[in-house]
Amino acid sequence: MMRKKKLLYAALAGMIFLPSFLGNASGVLAEDQKNVRSKEEVVYATLKANGDLGPIYVVNTLEVAKAGEILDFGNYKTVKNLTDRTELQQEGERVVADVEQEGKFYYQGDLEEGTELPWDVTVTYLLDGRKMDPADLAGETGHVEIQVETKANKSVDNDFYENYLLQVSLTLPNTYQNIEASPGGMQANAGKNKQITFTVMPGKEEQLIVEADVENFEFNGVEIAAVPSSLPIDTTGTEGMTDDMAELSDAIGQLNDGVSDLQDGVSQLNDGAGKLRDGSGTYKNGINQLNGSSSELVGASASIKEALGTINRELSGGAADVDLSSLTQLPAGLRELAKGMNDTADGLASLQKNYGAAYAALDGAITEIPAGELSEAEIASLYESGADPAVVDKLAANYAAAQKVKGTYAQVREAFAAVEPTLTQVDGAVRGMSGTLTTIADELSASLKETDLSGFAELVKGMETLAANYNQFHSGLVSYTNGVGELSTSYSQLHSGLVGLTDGTSELSSGVDELSNGTEELHSETKDLPEKMQAEIDKMIQEFDKSDFKPVSFVSEENEKVTSVQFVIKTEAIKMEEKKTKEAEPEKKKGFWTLLKELFN
Q: Is the pTM of this model over 0.70?
């Protein structure tokens, strides 16, 4: 009975003191965890050749503040002390060690099966374009393509995927030929091998491809190192870039202003060329009409010349043979001739007026064509400005045509300037001749009214003088009409050139309008270029600068003071099987009786 009471008292005491004991145990564990200054984890994962997950273990490095018990957490199936021979105690996810001294303490933990990495890695092999199983690829010859695809593992927290960059390396023998790596694969010699390295930025999915022509294919596998992208991005050089973009934007604005001024000038040139073409057309029609009437004018003058010759011959024959009745008709003929000359002079005056207006328009329009030469550098800058090359071609061609017209006009300008004074002189001469004929007609008419044979000698002499002078006038008139004919023919060619110039300036105006629209659009798109560039730089910095990322434990959320977590991932190698040499069977030792028997045989 006393024994049962003692057991009951002991049980009650245990129940009373158990909470206190548990509290002390919890305090010990918490104190043990505080005994660790920092913790680092390196996760080693071995994948199959195609990327399927294999075993994973973690090497933990604990910086111990002082000797004593320390505590760490991890879902390990086994643990191993890598520092000394002290046994580790594993209780669920708790790993307890009794450390004899401060400093670094290393232990390995093999993770439970089913633990996944933050990245899904898939490796695909192709031989001459055919997908191959890695086990069947060893020893093959041909064009091999290795595709390594990395993406986020959706079933694992994305802290590591979003903040870690991957360095993917493939080592190939130098005997492989025509090695290509994309995108952005860097090749480097590593002893007898060629090492291909890729970088995958945080939060990015990539498909990396390496191709080569191989013989007896073997492959050491894909190696992947995942480390924090914790280096801050230096932005000190971006100010110069944005300043350069600002200068470029300002230059494009100035180019747009210049093209706008060019557009106004070309528009004025096109308007002036249109007026020049219209005035030239009027002048061309007038000179053609004058040329068309030249034959009639020459014919009438020839008739007058012949009539004056006949009268002169009749008068020279003597007064007795002269029929004065026919002489009375001469004054009317002379007045009619004078009237025809006045009409001709009026036509010349109208021609002079039209020519003066047309010549002034022509001279003004051609003078307005810019004389400055457009350099090859300036034309090249137009091509580089982003304008339509076809429009710039039109602009350059029409500029050349305009300069050619200006140069040609400079050579013939004196001839054009001499036409108007010549027309003035011819007009004065024709009007003077008309006045002379009118005066002769008046005097002849008066003389006939007071016909006196005593004055007949003077009349004959006057008619001789008139006939001789008219012969000279007729010769000058023929030369003048020939000149008008040549001028009409030559001016038709000039007018055609002016029409072509107008067509060219019209195309030039249309082309400059298109160029102006293009530069206006370019200016509109680039005026905010520095701000847009700075925004893109800020966006890139925000996307790839992970310097504010604080490391977290991969194996357990309970672990504190984690300063570094790294991943080392490697796929299995693909190797050719070594040929097994058949070993000679060892010769059996012969026994005593066998040797004795052989001796007697």
A: no
